Amino acid sequence: MKFERNYILLLLLICAAIFFVNLNALPVNIMEARNFITAREMLNDGNWLLTTINGEPRYQKPPLPTWLTAFSAAIFGIKSVWALRLPAAIMTLFLVLFSYKLAKKLTSEKIYAFISALVMATSFYIVASARDGQWDIYTHGFMVVCIYLLYLFFTEEPHKYRNAILAGLFFGCSFLSKGPVSLYALLLPFLIAFGIVYKYRNFKSRWLPLVTFLAVSFVVSAWWHWYTLTFDPAAAEITKKETTNWISYEIKPFYYYWSFFTQSGVWTIPAFIGLLYPYLKNRVFNKKAYLFTFLWIMLSVVLLSLIPEKKSRYLLPVLIPMALNTGFYIEYLFRRFTELKDKRETIPVYFNFGLIAFIGIVFPVGGYIFLKDGIAGNWLWFVLLSLALLTIGILMFRNLFRRKIASVFYLTIAFIVAVIWFGLPLSKAITINPDYKPFSELHAFEEKENIKVYEFSDMTPELIWDYGEKMEILNQDDTFITPTENRFGVLVSEESLQHFKETFPNFRRERVARYDMNPKGPDSRTHKTRLYRDLFIVTKK
Questions:
Q1: Per-residue pLDDT averaged across 247-254, rounded?
Q2: Could you tell me which residues come within 8 angstroms of residue 10 by beta carbon, excluding any fewer than 6 positions away?
Q3: How far is CA 166 from CA 98, 174, 220, 317, in A?
Q4: Confidence label for 127 from pLDDT (cuts 50, 70 and 90)
Q5: Are 492 and 456 in contact (CB under 8 A)?
Q6: What is the pTM of this model?
Q7: Which of 171, 285, 287, 498 has a Cα at 20 to 30 A from 39?
């Protein structure tokens, strides 16, 4: 292959195209808002160690991702969503690059490593996490670097101490991103699978560097937790509550995660076939490495399934070994697809890539029908996306019929890039709320009326983030505080309207506006009460 020597450069370019373009296209979600508020209060109030959210302690998650977010915001601006999401995109880039290096070490095959890295970079939840300022991508990204260094530590004789110390530092960074999540869901299944397949050889020469790894890991992981527990008594109760959530919050059945392969998006069918171990084990070029990635996946899913608390985004660590596993199947298609005669092997390939090509070809018509109510003002992006997907779809069908599976694979990557470049700006066409009124406009109201506005009882992170600074909440530990001003504003959620009236029975209450930050209007099923507030002016009689 002509560009075999430039795989790293190509990965950099493709990841930049997928992770860094249109980072500010989508609205800030609840998980991001929490992180961004904490970053803002780090910069504005200096709360770098005893972290806060809207002025209250925020120790549920360690601070490293928020530090990185705050550093980016300090450079590019606290109001820049692109800047706030940039560290997550960079973290995902490192995850993909070190996964490529790990795959190359496992097999000594660059083309396989390149395929696996591209599958990872374009898997649905990897892409979503790269463009989302939340914690998960950090903890798993740092852990992948740790795993790569541990692989070197266990398989190579030189630089044992260097690899052990660096692995400990990155383990600590992972722990400082989201606690023991990645240790449990990514590192532990890796270590078990490695022990089963490759064995831990020459362990006597490694025990002292291993102790060094454990010591460095512990110190880097534990110091912030020690600091918060020592200097803020509230930290112990917050930590206890967060730990309890693992067994009492978002409880799902054991089998909840067992459609995990669908989280890879366009690679759902190849990922599923890659898991058919009896079928693929004699077709892959490296049976040992394939068994290793297969066991790594299954152990990770089983361990995650044992935890009562379950959320779909917790499957992110599974997508990492699954991309390496899927890469074996796609590499097999690269080598053998032109020779395959059995329809049971070719039909899934034609269906998977044919479906993607079909979507590209019908998008100009189907997209217009779906988006016509909001396409005004977005014609340029619609035309560009239609032309790109139509061209890619035609080329995919052409190469699929000619059995040029490598070309079809790379065109699938181009399909994802086209959606990121031209499709994300079109999100405005499907997020139409005629009553949209952001919380940032409250400042103009406060200045005009010369009053202070309070939140009645609920802290919705997206609203506080958009407001731009801390907002005082009248409900303090189930005790309502009455403002000292004779005239003030109160923001009230729909669920709290009756309680608001009961709390201020002897006050004059005048509803003056609704601040609604829902992407879609009140008639939509996705219109959420938590994203709007009624503003009342309250006056003492």
A1: 69
A2: 3, 114
A3: 14, 12, 11, 21
A4: very high
A5: yes
A6: 0.93
A7: 171
